[in-house]
Amino acid sequence: MPTNTPQTAAEIRSSFIKFFESKEHLFVRSSPVVPQDDPTLMFINAGMNQFKACFLGDNPNSYKRVANSQKCIRVSGKHNDLDEVGRDTYHHTFFEMLGNWSFGDYYKKEAIEWAWELLTEVWKLPKERLFVTIYKDDNEAWQIWKDVSGLPDSRIMRFDEKSNFWEMGDTGPCGPCSEIHYDKGDLATQEATFADPVLGVNGANDRYIEIWNNVFMQFERIKSGELIPLKNKNVDTGMGFERVCAILQGKNSNYDTDVFSPIINKIVEFSSVPYNTDPSGMPHRVIADHLRSLAFAIADGALPSNDGRGYVLRRILRRASRYARVLNQKEPFICRLVPTLAQTMGEAFPEIRERADFVAEVIRSEEDRFIKTLDAGLERFEKIAVVPQIPGEQVFILYDTYGFPPDLTRILAEEKGLQIDEAGFEAEMEKQKERARAAQKTGLSAIGSEGWTIFAEGTTEFLGYEKDTAQVKILRCKEDKGSLSIVLDRTPFYPEMGGEVGEKGTLKNANAELYVFDTVKVNDVWIHRAKLINGEINAQEFTASVNLEERTATRKNHTATHLLQAALRKVVGEHVTQQGSRVAPESLRFDFTAFSALTAEQIRDVENLVNEQIQKCLPISANVMSMEQAKESGAMALFGEKYGAEVRVVSVEDFSKELCGGLHVQNTGEIGVFRILSESSVSAGVRRIEATTAFNALNIFREESAIISSLKEQFRAKTENILERVSSLTEQLKASEKLAADLRAKIAEGQSADLFKSPQQVKDIPVWVSKLSMEPSEFSALLEGAQKTMPSHGIAVIANIQSDSGSIAVIVHAELVKKGVNAGSIVKKLAELAGGKGGGRPNFAQAGTKTPEKIEEALREVGGITAEHLR
Q: Environment class of residue 680 by beta-carbon count within 10 Å: exposed (0-12), middle (13-18) or buried (19+)?
């Protein structure tokens, strides 16, 4: 391979960016993998996501030509690669997408010329290994490729919509695309294979690899299926970074490149298990890939949880942790690899280096929790592995609850000579997907022109830093979810962004009045959610007025949030960074990194420090500067936030300095007072403080004062003696409750003695059967007494019947338990007859039913059922 081509991953990434900068493209940094203003996405899954609005003319940054390397995660929805990761050489959950874009500037000719120039002249890829695909009817692209590349006609291949017509979704921007494929195989067999639908280009193989897709976005598809030409023709390209690294480094697998090899080498070092490129190396590949997804998602603000993207992260982590167990790792393992990833990718993506300690701690905590779950899952498997074929429902429970991939359950089953119900498992998976689709937040869409009434073209100018009211015109509007979505030419309304809630207010003119109940920003488009009070929407000028009372309160809480973060860093430590926030008129919520709860003393010190700054009446300043200048000034950035080339820095003298686009007071004295309401845990490594300011804080003080005054009257005590009196009364109450419980137990024991009269004799064993009707609490107390007073070598079956429900309890004496008699097995049989379910321990078990009328029938079968269990 020629020595002047880039060799390392860092060189390849840099070469791509510099090439397009030489073509007058602006380099735009990767957006976070956690979407900030696109509710339709769980994770950023393509380079074009942050530029969606640009394709439809909403281009507030006036981009013309752009290039970047975008962090992407594909694990859900249409782009679900999770189950393939580790099996082959090129599927990943996390990957980089190199891309270049034109927004109404250049089109097919330049995009194709530059793609060919970079690949063949700069990177020196052999032309005989390159193939091009185009949309079947795109004769323009075919001719450009023919002129530029000189490829034989047979290697400029036409395909249909499935392969070469790109669409964002069922509706929205779309257009024909042209892909570039690279032949990694033996050139001697190329002629015989490249056109094969399976073994060739666009087939299901790892020989002909797609490395670059050029999308020529020229249409918008509407609900009817019709294609409408876009106002501007755009170019959207995406190149698989890991794939092109493998080609330029002469590797057969992406995992053999220096993108992954440092991580895999560290896995080998830590586990002492050699890595192989065959299936035995799958654990190494899965862990290396999943580490990247987890680390970048957590660094950008996502956390493992039980729903949404947090649930997806938990699944990824558990899959990786399971493969760590295959490498004989029984302690947290994946977290130990974070420093290697930070060293490998920290130069291109500084956030992974800056947050490495936090990322590692979150992963460690999740691993630790899952290791316990994994052991519980193995126990559950042993319990269900008693039939020739393990039901699909049970396989799904192992997958969903315990993190067992089906192939693991299959392996465990095969070791016991069993099978799993594959079809049943797939059916359960499909049910889960349906539930997820039903629950998914589709959110508002600013993409597309369909449904919008368009009065004028343009973008929204924000006036809210200086104005509470403004004269505005409606650019477009549409009915959306029973309300109106409105885009204005200028607006004083601040949208939900950076933790600050969207503003409310009114739009009025002589002919119409609207109530704005929320303001959001979707794909860089300001959308005012409104209800029409009277009149009808028109193109005339409106007066836009923000709810001033709520804005004033929100300003105070937002500045207080900045003071809170600065105070936490001074009191708790410099490791504290913001993990999320919510700033509303009534209160504020601040999530931050911390590995233990704050002490009462720390909470007091933080609250005091914030109030000290309020008392000083410090001025607040906001200045716009370049990102580099902001960093040099020491301004703190919110990880996971998307920033442009220029940023707004909000400073509170020397106490606080943050990147922030939100609304603030002019002087800390305007806040009045700051009060912490609670401090709690959000997840591993993340704590939450809820607080409020000004009159809301004052009202809380008043409410608390009223409570204290009431207690003083009731206890006839001074303020300083109230706690002592409450403590004394609490102890008295505990003593009374214990006395009452002891009395109930003695009564129950006395009552239970009546249960053990006139037993049936089953195989010379006394079996007592009782039918009662009492309150559930009384029945529970009776059962406690019965377990203590039951005579030796006996079985008791006690039923409680109520109008709409009933229960059956089985007690087996310890001597019989030793001989194998099991109360749980007996109660299950009785429950089936009574139309209910139940279970429990060998010595005590209980069942419930909603058909109490069947209990009589079940009790008649006690003799036969107990006889089956007596040996």
A: exposed
| pLDDT tens digits, 596-630 | 899 999 999 999 999 999 999 999 999 999 888 98
Provide the 3-class DSSP secondary structure of residue 454.
strand
- Among 130, 192, 200, which residue's Cα sits nearest to residue 163? 200
Measured over the CA atoms of residue 334, residue 336, residue 339 and residue 340, the dihedral's sign is: negative
Q: Where are the beta strands (DSSP E) in 618-696?
A: 620-626, 646-652, 656-659, 674-683, 686-693
- Which of 184, 174, 188, 165 lies closest to 125 in space, CA to CA? 184
Proportion of the chain in helix, strand, coil states, percent, rounded to 5: 40, 25, 30
Q: pLDDT tens, 389-441?
A: 888 888 888 887 777 777 778 878 887 888 888 888 888 888 877 766 554 44
Mean pLDDT of the residues in the chain: 89
Q: What DSSP assignment string belongs to 578-601?
A: EEEEEE-SS-EEEEEE-SSPPPHH
> Lowest-pLDDT range, 143-152, 548-557, 821-830?
821-830
HSE-up of residue 297 (Cα within 13 Å, Cβ side): 31
Cα–Cα distances in Å, from 337 out to 264, 265, 301, 566? 9, 10, 19, 31
Q: What is the DSSP letter of 509?
A: E
Angle 338-345/356-384 helices, nearest 10 degrees? Answer: 130
What is the pTM for the complete model shown? 0.71
CA nearest to 215, candidates 156, 174, 181, 250: 174
